UniProtKB/TrEMBL annotation:
GO terms for cellular component: cytosol. This is DNA helicase IV. Residues 665-714 are annotated as: Disordered. Pfam families: AAA_19, UvrD_C_2. GO terms for molecular function: 3'-5' DNA helicase activity; ATP binding; DNA binding; hydrolase activity. Signal peptide: none annotated. One of its GO terms (biological process) is recombinational repair. The lineage of its organism: Bacteria, Bacillati, Actinomycetota, Actinomycetes, Propionibacteriales. It comes from Actinopolymorpha rutila. It comes from the Bacteria. Transmembrane segments: none annotated.
Amino acid sequence: MDSSELRLEQAYFDRAWGERERKREVLRSAPMAAAGPISGTAQVKRAAERAIDALGAPEDSVAFGRFGDSAGDTYYVGKHLINTEDRDCLVINWQSPAAVPYYKATHDDPCDVRLKRSFKTQANKVLDYEDVLFADLAQRVEDLSGTERWGIDDTVLRDLDAQRTGEMRDIVQTIHAAQYELIRSPLEQLLIIQGGPGTGKTAIALHRVSWLLYNYQGKIAPSDVLVVGPNPTFTRYIRSVLPGLGDADVEHRDLRSLGPQASTGLAEDPEVARLKGEARMSRLLTRALQQRVRFPERSEVLDIGRGVGVQRLTRNAVQSVLPRFLAAATYNDGRGQFRAWLSERVHRGTRSTVGVSATVLEAAVERVWPSLTPQSFLRELLGSRERLVAAAGDDFTAGDIGRLLRAPSERISEERWSDTDVALLDQADYMISGRFPTFRHIVIDEAQDLSPMQLQSVRLRSRTGSLTVVGDLAQSTGPWARDSWTDIEETLVRRHPSRVEELTLGYRVPEQVYALAAWLLPIAAPEITPPRVVRRGPADPELTHVDPEDVAGQAVVTAREYAGRGLFVGIVCPDAVRANVEDSLSRAGVAYSDVGSGKLGASINLARPVEAKGLEFDAVVVVEPESIVAEYERGHRMLYVALTRTTRYLSVVYSRTALALPVDSTGGEVSDADAPAIRTVEEPPEESPTPTRQRPETETGPSRVRTDHSSKDGVGFNIAETVSQAVAVTIAAHIRHSVGEPLWADVINRIRLELGVSQEDLFDRFE
């Protein structure tokens, strides 16, 4: 690093910082300068506050990179535009068209970029920089390293190794060229991004929102964007990214609260959850709602009022007009139209100058067309076999009705709601009132698990069908686990084109960890192409075999060791041992955060595998993998999720098996010869990239590339060796503590005899 060059860069940063802070002061004084009516001043103040937010914090660095072109022009790139008073541009915004070469330049297409410089900063102090000279890369193209060939510089690797916290960070400095192309995709489309763990799909979706807001100003505002996550914890984890990019008014929601009533955590059988998620539930709700409109039973007249002034309408007179009002856009619209008709008929027939009071009229309307809330409607439907049977039509069996039926609470305020009830309540709300906000663009994260009813909730909020949908089919679990994006695409697509893109580079998960997790892919998702791994981690996965009663204690010991090094730690454990882990944490006096309750702490976090989806930690302790597999219908996928949450360290604590792998066709355990091939960036790219899937086309599902899982060329991590080492350490420790050293050889020989291992077998092992 050239110290004189560093001083020049610091001087430029200082100048840009001064201009930015000057603008901040001008904006702060804008409301006072307006000195107009109170309402006008308030508007100026709000506009000034938004503009100040868009500048970033005073302690933020003004830029993260710069590039120079062949004409000798230099451009600094940052999160926010910085101009001088004379409108000279000091820093261009990363979303602007002017910044395109910074992200798109590669060794085989430098986009007229001569030099690309990435800065390492602390606040606005320039600590270091790294240069990429594209002429140099072109000259030594045959000798390029894997990371150079793929356009991954030290800045990216340094960011991947940085310590994590309870909040997701932006990646504006390290956006890869392939990611950038997806971020810059046009607004008017349904874009589905398939990506394995750590491929950056969530970051791409969020940065795409920021890019769209900048480049489609006038067409879309922050309040026109909705980001939907799977649960409150995930939403909290990602919600600081967009404000950090200057887009503070984007709405974040999670599936458990996407409607008029949030889930209260009512547990239900997976069969019931799947049934409630099916598209036919929409037809059940439609019929059930229409059936609430009826002439009172056992009565041939509708009395309006009492005594001398009572008005009476016959059953035939009322029933003849109901179909007309049931055709209204919403239940409440139809009710209002019926009320108006009833009012007109009553007032036309009365001779009183006083007429019928609004209260009396409303009581009559209520007898025919009851006022309903989504909560009261669904509670009364699910609590009544009679109503369910009447609404079932030909879509539901008696068994289905029995599964849907549940006892209602005494009061509606005490009713408990499941996660799958939320989408039903949302559909009911739409049919009853039809009033909830719609959005110009919607992002759905972890979309691979959504039911048709949840997808319908999202679709109803989309004005045009402009969506970014991200997920990983290899991590698709739960009642709606799927192996294809087809049904999601068909449900969400509207008038805009749609396409499915696949991310091929895995940034977060270290090579050694992925080599372990990839053993699960032939079972969990055989048609998914594993991502190409970018980097190795600081250590191989640690597999620790202990007695069943020691599992929880060992998991806590391991987590404390990681936390003691200042790492952000996740303990991922199944319900079978969760109570034991919680008890061990409490007895050890360890403070921890419960991910399931929506919390993420800076130290130790306890999560079920399903709660860990989408999250990342410096270090992960996976507890009892065999129980994880046993507890979920797609258990190997859930274990795959658990193993791939780490950015650096992985420990597996188990009493039975480390991966719960199946046996092969001969009845033997899967061996290293069956290991799936792990691709790294050190291998050259394929000649033909994986094709993008776009509609319309004739095939019925997304294009896929089948991985040759029989390859013997796995890299980085040998599972047989690691398991053998873990078991050997456990046995050796037991021998060491049980007998004296003179007896060790005899004990080992007797173990050999107990296992039926001949001396020849041992000698062959070491030849």
